[in-house]
Amino acid sequence: MKTEDVRTYLLSLQDRIIDTMQSEDGSPFVRDAWTRPSGGRLEGDGVSRLVEDGPLLERGGCNFSHVKGPQLPPSATQHRPELAGAPFEALGVSLVFHPRNPYVPTVHMNVRMLAAHPPGRESVTWFGGGMDLTPYYGFEEDAGHFHTTCRDALAPFGDDKYPRFKQWCDDYFYLKHRQEARGIGGIFYDDFAEGGFDTGFGMMRSVGDAFLAAYLPIVQRRRALPYGERERDFQAYRRGRYVEFNLVWDRGTLFGLQSGGRTESILMSMPPVVKWRYDWQPEPDSPEARLYTDFLPPRAWV
């Protein structure tokens, strides 16, 4: 019954987020329900919701999945080697929204539960998730709002959670090969089992429920700001960093691909228009340079 409670919550969360973003965008999200029959590497079901070429979202996706497999992939056991090879069950909601206007930041959110069922031993359940913001043009007001909402979502679970999970986010969403942050962070946690199932599930709900409050006011403040080819060009360049992180470092992407997940759903996080340049640097003292000097280096936002 505990897994069913998590499933019911996650499907409700997906519906609430999609209903709100459809209203903001004015374009319907495609609904793609899928199933994986038993007998393969994975069995289970899910619902992918996607919009492309909307007035607000150039590309946006919000996935629900609930799968079971005979063996945990390496990406899920790197911190729990004693569970290597155990059958598993995983369910979660994951989203990435890539807005059209470069002044509206890209956002990612994920909440998930994973359970391992080692033969002859008690099952082990843990939770993970978080949300992070990737602006192209930074605004102090937006960064402060996003982090304040994240802090408040974690406050009922202990004063240590926000600083701990903010640091985890700063460390995780970092392109080591570039020595550069992906964005301004937020909160991130994984392999969380402190306080048992009820605490983990409660924190997962609090983080999921905080997403719209964290992101929507930023969207509404920035979506009508005028922009030109310069801003779109820089947005496409910075989106390249997003692609690099997701394909090289992201554990969720690796988990999905290693476990035989649905490739279209896993890679729906990719932005639609991306550019790379050789050894490019922004003009000194430009708005683009300010992203690197004032926003990407980790700092206290609240």
Share of residues in helices? 40-55%
What is the level 1 CATH name? Alpha Beta
Q: Strand percentage, roughly?
A: 25-35%
Total domain count: 1
Q: Alpha-carbon distance between the termini?
A: 38 Å
CATH topology: oxygen-dependent coproporphyrinogen oxidase
Gyration radius, rounded: 19 Å
What string gives the helices and strands in order?
Answer: HEEEHEEEHHEEEHHHHH
Biggest sheet descriptor? 7 strands, antiparallel
The largest sheet has its strands arranged as 1-2-3-4-5-6-9
Shape: globular
Q: So, CATH architecture?
A: 3-Layer(aba) Sandwich
Unreliable runs, pLDDT <50, ≥5 residues?
A: none
What's the number of helices?
9
Instruction: Report the strand count.
Output: 9
Please name the fourth-level CATH homologous superfamily.
Coproporphyrinogen III oxidase, aerobic
> What's the mean pLDDT score?
92
Structural class: alpha+beta
